[in-house]
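To: structure subgroup
Subject: Chain for Friday's discussion

All,

I'm putting the inputs and outputs inline so they're searchable in the archive.
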Amino acid sequence: MEHVQLALSRFKEGFSCSQAVLSAFSDIFGLDLNTALRISQSFGGGIAHRGEMCGAVSGALLVIGLKYGRTKAEDIQAREKTYQVVREFIKRFENLNESIICKDLLGQDLNTEEGLKFVEEEKLFKTLCPKFVQNATEILENLI
């Protein structure tokens, strides 16, 4: 539960979903906070406000990679383990939220000026995204 609270706290500070999720787990993997925040920055808003894969999901996939990812090309077992855990994560996230796509989760296309404006004016990042950060972090806590 401590990771959930840390992720939500970071999100409330103004960091993106991807930054909140990755940074909540970074210390476990010896990744300093600044590096974790920088690595995950571009995934916010469904990859730079494009409304694609949810930033909370992207942050979670980075965590899974840190935990299980291979470091040697010939380590096929590590690759398969990573893919297995990613598939399970996505299945659980979709069961809770019906999608992993930001524009579907928010109901707006962030890749358009109108969609992004609507999301910002209606404060959807602040009202809807904490749930996705929480869901992603809770799923990670159970998977890793």
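Points worth raising on Friday:
The chain has a mean pLDDT of 96.
The chain is about 70% helix and 0% strand.

D.
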